Every structure is written in C-alpha cells, then in structure tokens.
Amino acid sequence: MKLEILTPETIYYKGETDSVTLPGILGSFQILKNHAPIISLLTKGVLSFSTDGVIQQIKVTDGLVEMHNNKITVCIDEIL
User: Fold this and answer.
1) Which residues pair with 57 in a beta bridge?
2) N or C: which terminal CB in the chain sees fewer CB atoms within 10 Å?
3) Do the strands 2-6 and 71-76 form a parallel or antiparallel pair, or are they unpaired?
4) 3-state secondary structure labels for all residues of the chain
5) What is the dihedral of CA 66, 2, 10, 78, to 10 degrees?
6) Structural domain boundaries enclosing 29
7) Which long-range contacts (C-beta less than 8 Å, at least 24 apart) are formed by 55-59?
C-alpha cells in the first residue's frame, strides 16, 4: 500500500507500508491492504505504520484519513 502523511507545512512520509494504525475519534483502528474505502476523523494519539516488519510510531494531533485503492492519505494538524 502507498502511504502519505501530510501536515500543513510538509510531507512527513511518502512510501510503501504493510499496515497503519490510527487514533480514530471512536478508538484506534488498523488499515491493511485491500481495506474497504474509508474516510475517518482522527484525534490526538499515536499513529504507527509498518514497513518490511519495522514499526514506526509518531504522536499526532487532530486530522483525517482517507483510504482508497490501496492508497492511504493522512492529513494531520501537527506532529508532536
């Protein structure tokens, strides 16, 4: 899957990923390959993603995520 993590100032990450775990407003959720299309609001918490078995974690503030055709776009206000 392709993942883009964007802030108003920069593109924080752009590349391939195996899975993404996000802090949704109703709780944490995970997106895997071939997930159904989704748009969801995000809240302050930890966003993590796995690439070739290596997990990266970042603390984020409010934002949103869109998943469509194995492309995940995450727009967040700020990386903490």
Assistant:
1) 48
2) C
3) parallel
4) CEEEEECCCCEEEEEECCEEEEEECCEEEEEECCCCCEEEEECCEEEEEEECCEEEEEEECCEEEEEECCEEEEEECCEC
5) 50
6) 2-76
7) 58/5, 58/12
Query: Domain containing 21 — which CATH number?
Result: 2.60.15.10
pTM: 0.87
Count of structural domains within the chain? 1
Contact 65, 22 (CB under 8 A): yes
| Residue 64 buriedness (CB in 10 A; 0-12 / 13-18 / 19+) | middle
